[in-house]
Structure formats: C-alpha cells, structure tokens
Amino acid sequence: MTETVPRPTLEAVAARAGVSRATVSRVVNGADGVREPLAERVRRAVEELGYVPNQAARSLVTKRHDAVAVVVAEPETRVFADPFFARQLRGISKELTAHDNQLVLLLTEGRDDHARVARYLAGGHVDGALVFSLHLDDPLPELIQRAGVPTVFGGRPGWSGGRDGVVYVDSDNRGGARDAVRHLLGLGRGRIAHITGALDQTSAVDRLDGFRDVMVDADPRLVVEGDFTPAAGERAMRELLGRCPDLDAVFAANDLTAVGALRVLREHGRRVPDDVAVVGFDDMLPIAEQTDPPLTTVRQDIEEMGRLMARLLLRGLDRTAAAPENVGGTPSSVILPTTLVRRASA
Amino acid sequence: MTETVPRPTLEAVAARAGVSRATVSRVVNGADGVREPLAERVRRAVEELGYVPNQAARSLVTKRHDAVAVVVAEPETRVFADPFFARQLRGISKELTAHDNQLVLLLTEGRDDHARVARYLAGGHVDGALVFSLHLDDPLPELIQRAGVPTVFGGRPGWSGGRDGVVYVDSDNRGGARDAVRHLLGLGRGRIAHITGALDQTSAVDRLDGFRDVMVDADPRLVVEGDFTPAAGERAMRELLGRCPDLDAVFAANDLTAVGALRVLREHGRRVPDDVAVVGFDDMLPIAEQTDPPLTTVRQDIEEMGRLMARLLLRGLDRTAAAPENVGGTPSSVILPTTLVRRASA
DNA sequence: GAGAGATCCGAGAGCGCTCTCACCCCTCGG
DNA sequence: CCGAGGGGTGAGAGCGCTCTCGGATCTCTC
Which residues form the HTH lacI-type domain (chains A, B) (predicted)? Predict the structure, then answer.
C-alpha cells in the first residue's frame, strides 16, 4: 500500500543548493530575478531531492487553492442515471484542467448532507463552487451564500436570495420548448400533449411555460406532470392515452421521458410519427438517435454549458485576468441557445 | 457572485470567548478536558462569529487532509459512457462520506495528463488514492508509487512494480466467465463463441482465461477481440457470423458488448436464445433487463467494489482503527464473487 | 485542614511556505 | 576613480492551526 514518506521541504532544498528559502521559492514559482547559475543549482537540488511544494502551507499564505468544488444537489441515483450530468461534468473538467485547477466532486447523500457540503465549502478548501440541478426548495444556495464562496449555478436557480450577484448558465429552455411545439403545429398536429419534468426545477417550469406560450389555451388535460425519468414518461403517457385518446403529438420534457412515452405508445399500437408525433429535449446522444424511431428533439450543448460555468467562475476569481475576452468586469449569467434537431419521430 | 470575506480565526473566537486558542481548538475538535461552562461559552462564540476552521492551516500541522483522490485512467469519453464507473464511484462516495472524507475526482485528459495527476498526488492534497481501470502499459501506477501515496486499485493492475504492497479489489472475472460458459454448455450448446473485452485490461484477459478454462480446445476462430463497447460487439458479431455461421452461443465480455451482438444477431435473423444463446457480464442495470430478450449475465456487485476500495484505503490510513473488523494489520487485496443471473437470452 | 494527585487551561513553539524589506554588490556615469 | 543607482539575495515575520508542557486549580483522603 506504499507508505507515506516525509517529504523534503523548501528548507532542505535551500540547504542543498546553498541558498536561502526565498530564492528557492522564487525559482520554484517561476518568478524572475534569480541569476542563471544560481537558479540552475536550485533546480538541480529540487530534482535530486524530488521536492514537491506542500500545498497546505502554500494555501495557508496565498489563500488560493486552485481547486473548484462541483456540487450536485441531486439524489445520487439520478445523478448517474442521467447522462446529462456526465456531459456537463466533462465540460467543466476540461476547462478547469486547462487552467490548472482541480475538480473536487461533492455528491450529496440526501438532505442532511447539505450541511456537510456547506461546511466543506466554508472550510476554505476550494476557491469557488459550481452547483447543479437545484430544486426550488433547496436550502443549499442560501448556505453557500452564507459561506461566502464564489459560485456559478448550472441552470437558473429558482431563488434570488435577495442578492443580485447570482451567476448562472442555462439553456434557453423556454425558447427551445416553443420551437418544439411550433414544429409540431407545423406538422399539422392540433392535439399536442406535454409531459413535464420535475416541476421543482426551473428547467421543467421553463419548458412548460414555453409549451403554454404557443398552446395558449390548451386543454389542461393534455399536460401531465413527470420528473425527467423514463418511468415517469411511461406513467404519464398511459395517463394521457386514457384521458385524451385523440392526441396526435407529445412534447416530452426531456429525451428520457420521451423514451418512456415511445415505449407506451408502441405498446398501445400507436405508430410514431404517423399517429402520434413525439419531440424530446436535450438531444441526449446516443439515446436520442437509437430510439425507434430516432427522436426529434431540442438540442442543448451540455458540455459547453459546463465549460462555460467553469470559465465564468474562474474569470470571477481573476484566474484568467490576462485573457483577452476578459473585459467587462464581473461575469454575468449566460443563456445558451437551443436548436431543433429533426429526426424521424416528428 | 458572492465575494470572499475574511473569515474569523481561532484567535478571534478565543478573544471573544475570553479563553486561549488552545481551549477553542479543544472544543472545536471535540476533545474532552474542557469544563462545561467554558465549553459552552466557546461554542457560543463560534456560533456568533460563524467560525469555520481553516483546513489548510490544520493540515499543515496534522498532515491529514481527510480527502481521497479518485483517479480514472480512462479516456473520458468511455468513463461517462460506461455506467460501470458511475456505480463504483457511488460506492466509493458513500463509504468516504460515512468516514467524513472528501472525494477528489481526477479525470485524466489523455496520456500527458498522467504527469499532472502524479504531481497532484505528490503535492500532498490527499491522504490516499483510488485508481481505476488501468491499462497494462499505463505509467500511472509507477508514478503514483514514486509519489508515495497510499493507493488501492480497482481491478487487478497488470503490474506488480516489484513491490508486494499493491492492494486491489477485483471481481472473480475468471470464475464468473467459467460459470457463464458452463451454463451455455449445460444448455446443450457446443459452438460457443467469445467476444473479448479490451485485452490490455486484466479483467478482459481474466474473462478470456475463464472461457478457455472450460473450452479447453475451442476453435480459435470462435474468439474475437473487442473492447467492451457496443460498437465492438457489433463488429465482432458480424465477424463471427461470417467465420462460423454454425455457432450456437456467444459469451460477451460485458453487457454492452452483448447489446451490440444482440443487435447484429437480430439483423441477421438469428433468434435468441433459440438459434444463438447469449450471455453477458456485469449485470449492468437497467440495460441488462431491457434488452430484447433480457440478458442472461454474470453479476458483479460494482457498488460494493467501490465501497470496499474506499474501506481498504481508509483502513490502511488508520482512519477506522477502532473498527472491530479491523484486526489483522495491513489490508490485502479482495476478490469478490460473481453470480450468474438467468434471464431469457440463455 | 493540609498534602498528594488529578484535572483543567494557557503559553509558546512550530508546521512549510510566501513576501516584504533591507542589505549587498555590481555596473555605469561623471 | 568614486558615488549613485539598480538588480540580486537573504533575513525574518507571519499565515491559522495543533499540541506539548508547565503551572494553576480543584478534589480527595486521612
């Protein structure tokens, strides 16, 4: 299991190179102002001793950690079942790595865990936080704000906290939903149903709003609440078929929901898209391509969302102060556009 | 974006409570030896000032971080595509959280990144590391060992490093494979093919060995190399059908591979299991249940593997020294049993 | 009621690093 | 050839915490 060995300190390197700690520090941190022969001697000493700076000591004085926490405020079962998260995480990871920042993943294990997370953030382990998938009644943003940790949210938090400094990255959920429904209308469909996502999340609410924007006086029985899972899609679809057997289109709050809906439609012998057209949301690959028929859906660039979240945070931390695009001071929220992807289901 | 505010220090709390730093430290760390009225005063001061200990300062002296790195030595595309990883991570996360340890996720972005990871581990950010999904030629274990970080591997590393202290958690891949093939034999199948996993990983090699244990003199044309992906499953299945149209069973190195194989079998009009029986490996839910027909497969408890990895590491770090099961000194590797799950495909 | 022993608390050193500031030496202009 | 100026280097303080150790206080016991 490889035992831990006492590491050489700056002091040791200094002694070996016959210089002061300050000089070694300068060389190690790439500051100039050390003449070449000396610098070389220091580098050799570092090499020979296998010196690696102690981060704890360093952060103690610099108050920087070069680490960012990613908080997923979701029951973990969902986190991993939903590829959405993975994509976003990937974007984040790329961006952070590019700026030499570490990613500290904080998974919450149920509600009580929020306090633990807040404690961790307040403990000064990380320079900032990226928070995902908040629910409306979630105490986390409140706690984080109190902890005073710079934060960027993924998805518009349904909460303003009285402060206007809340920064988030979101897709244009409402606009995307409108596009989806308009597309169905354009196909000549009139009885369009909507299976919502979990309505305690703003993304679900926004998509529902988009649906209603277009279907101003839709039959209320055509809207059924879901929760973004395939299981909910199935349940909701069954309910819809029972209530309104004459429906000719379904706009599902996401692709997973659509998958569930497709399954039930097939079960009931409804042909897609001939009898019922189906549109999803997310363009979650490869799922969206492999359904039968392949799913028409609203694409959002999830990885880009992640990347952007990280970039906004780092910018706020002055990490990329030198970057050319970094004019204009404090970062503000970003809404990414969506695009309709036509496949066979609608 | 919530600006960072100077945090109160131990000193401040001590001043407010009218005691020494030492006393506050004792109270905060739950050490006994502080009389109740005083302790209460300290707790109030902590509360009022919103004091949270500075971790950097703390680790500087204790040399503990209560954090563990999880290193995934896999091109990230695969990491997230494969639910395997998610399960294991979940087990790890649970166990770590239960012992108040943080999970630091290190994703490697290509080969060069190994150096970055090694540097991070050597930097003394974490108390130990959990490393996954190694490939045979991977330089990472070597680097990690040199960094002197206690480590537990997920899956037997195909590398011993000359030291015998390597600890890992693995499934009984070879035994599981034997069970799968014997099951097919028991079904009266004689022409059993095997689609391997990525043969630069020990799990794939072990499963192949298990296959050969039972099919001692199998037609070598019945073994095709894959890489654990559905795409490879399709390709390999096509090749197999071309080479040996008379095959009557397939043992796939994992469920994803089996999914690909099933697709191609259907395409070619072979009925499963009537014409060709198929067995997978992993019992990856829900995939394994939702294939058509539902997949017979070899189950391994992936989450438990993760949990166990974390437990072994923490034990090695003396975190759980008081735990009753913790007799017997240095932890050693664990091989978890597998079980055959019979569904419809074989 | 006094001494021994246990208990509680505070002073202070030190973890490994960064960063300021003062000092030294080297160079160059007059 | 001497003094001013500037760049290179080192001394030392201090980041916020833990932990040892000695002294003060308390509790018994006879």
Answer: 8-62
